Amino acid sequence: MGQKSAVCESIEPPGSSTSLSSLAKKTFEHPVHEQLSLFTANTSVNPGITASVADKGSDPRVPGKPVNAGTAGFRERFFSAATAVEWNDWMWQMRNRIRSLAELTHFLELSPEEKAVDRSSGISLPMAITPYYLSLFYDRDSCAPLRKSMVPQVFETLYSPAEAQDPLGEEAQSPVEGLVHRYPDRALLLVTTTCSNYCRYCTRSRVVGNSERHALPQIDRWKNALAYIGAHPEIRDVLVSGGDPLLLSDDQLQWLLGNLRKIPHVEMIRIGTKAPMALPQRITPHLVKMLRKYHPLFMSIHATHPDEITPESSEACTRLADAGIPLGSQTVLLAGVNDSAVTMRTLMHKLLTIRVRPYYLYQCDPILGSGHFRTPVHAGIDIINSLRGFTSGYAVPTFVIDAPGGGGKIPVMPEYVLSRENDEVVLRNFNNDRFVYPDEKGRAVACSGTFREGDGI
Ligand code: SF4
Fold first, then answer.
1. Is 22 inside any structural domain?
2. Which of 18, 48, 209, 389 could form a disulfide with 126 if both were Cys (CB 3.0 to 4.6 A apart)?
């Protein structure tokens, strides 16, 4: 318990408790009533749409800033009043998110399955799409991968008996609010419920975008979680996730990371985020300069489809990699989004070109209303089969099923071992050619002390 006290002593940031509450106010957690905007017209029209065109003359250039051509056209068409500085400011992107279907109709024509959401009930996950992310799919139909992953469809209201609000049993493995302790030496720290964009297949759709669900204020949740980690010396690896932790301010993140680093047994910290893909403007030089103080720090980047790999996301990942942060990807396998071998191979290759190592490919979790996203398990196995041996090993993620009920990630592999018998293992390679490996034969003489000078071999 001594460690717990030490953590509690270090938990107040420099300055008074007032500065702590001001840190809390900087988050983008929005009240629960904003979820309802999914179904109603948002009367406060996006400021980016209505801002005075006269401002355009004062548009400062941002030399050398990479811009995706499609994004540039979108900005010119819908946000021409926004300056380049505004567009490249993540806070501006957050303030100008599209939060309702009614607002979305300014940019695209809704399909029947999207329109039908207005008349349905039962969808609790809010909608939010940054202007940048919308620029990646606004001119595509409702079957387009990124559009399907972000714009709600009426299929979300169809529940099957196998689905659950909390299919991974995180609530049952949460000793304090905002922390999941499932594996012996790791803890999952859920520091916010806010994301820049809400993925329609989100495992935590029961909580994201819903700050009022919490019993305790954010600061108290953080303190309790840090105290828990401090009191559990077996925890050597902390995954900071959410929501998206990179939506916290730099000050808030620094405070969290600094306090985690003060816990002697926390050897490594990981951040799980979609920001480099959905809000690359968030990866500022200031953020990166701060993050690099907390090595060993790893980052798991949620990547969905090759359309996300743009000059903007590439710059964001390069900036992080240049700061020495090892980058891995996490991708959810989604029907009609990325469930083809060609799409997945392209995504993995493109991730490697921006220095992100493919890490996990997840079977979609059976959250409520996820039937239109879930693929049969063999689809994931087939994709791994199509990658292994046919491309660089670095481009092959591990396909996992997060066991319903809280059993953790279980790797699911194509079968390469055909049989084991008579001290031989029969294997197949990627071309389905058969090979025999002598498993036991010859091993006995390898032990030290069994060979004496003069022994014949
Ligand atoms: S970014 Fe992650 S936490 Fe946020 S909605 Fe998407 S899957 Fe959920």
1. no
2. 209
